[in-house]
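Exam revision sheet. Question 4 asks you to relate a sequence to its structure. Input first:
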Amino acid sequence: MHSNLHKKAFKNGLLICNGHEAYHDDLADIFDNLYIIDPYYQKQNYLKSIEIFIEYLKKNNISSNTTKIIYSSGLEDKKDIKEYLDKEFFICGNNFYKYTLLSNPYNLDKKLFRDNILLPDVSKTFHYKYISKKKNSSGGLNVANNLISSDIFYQQFIPGNTYSVSFLSSKKDTHILGFNQLFVVKDNAKYPYLHAGAITLDIDYEQLYHYIKWINDFSSMYKLNGFCSIDYKIYDNKIYIIDINPRLSGTYKLYKKRYENLIHHHVGLISEKLLSVSNEYYAYITLFAKNDYVADETIFKIKDISDIPILGETIKKNMPILTLNFKSNDKTKIMTKIKKRIKSAMKIIDCYNIELEYE
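Answer key, structure tokens:
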């Protein structure tokens, strides 16, 4: 919990996420008391069941009358907790009903789609040109080439790089924050599509005019609020919608540096036009454990890192170890930095390499 004697905009906030560092300081500036549930960082998983979660609320005197919920990740398959929060608390951004509905893009109104913006085909049975996905998958987790489970579907594989667009929605309008390319881990047999970072891109907005209009139509139809993002691919001059994230997501850490008071807009504290404060390129890379790894002081030999584990902590295989952060005013230089620092980090910690293809 973070507390401060100075008067803040709100009394209490509860942040729920897998990895809280990107949001902590921004939220601590506007909440008198900031409570955090982070299964990646805390030894006890307070999201394991609805009973454990409610006990956590009671133990910390977290009241629905004075507390706002800020959500990023961790509740993907926790239907009972999401329903409880929607019923009892104010949710910053989009409520969990809307989040659950839109997280499956196949729930979208068919009127939204057109010849050049569409969804990949789906199948109930496995096909070699399809990938398997869990219905609540996000960030490339539970996405594979043949996942055996009762809660999966098969989605047409679209070749090429994966991109995302980050945007901020309100009752007034939708503001495009920027476009990004997503990176994935390399040679991970269990999670071959695991997201492992992103980089901001130069985009000709005129070329994507129809897509930007589509985002505005989508946001208006579902009355979106706050920070959102959409993952997509471009193939054969068509845009394929892969995932929709009506919540805070990884690319927030890119745009908090480009825009002033971004979190203030997300929680509804201010509604004025966003002020851009930087035009630099930003990127981050999440390094995942290739085998069980015990964190020690050698990680501090790696420059400009965040989401740092507790020394002595065992990070299980395929879990995130830490994040590398980058910025540059030159897109070629930032990619050179990324390649160099991943290579250097791999000499210090036992982690997966990253698949880097830059457009």
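Marking note for examiners. The first strand starts at residue 2 and ends at 3.
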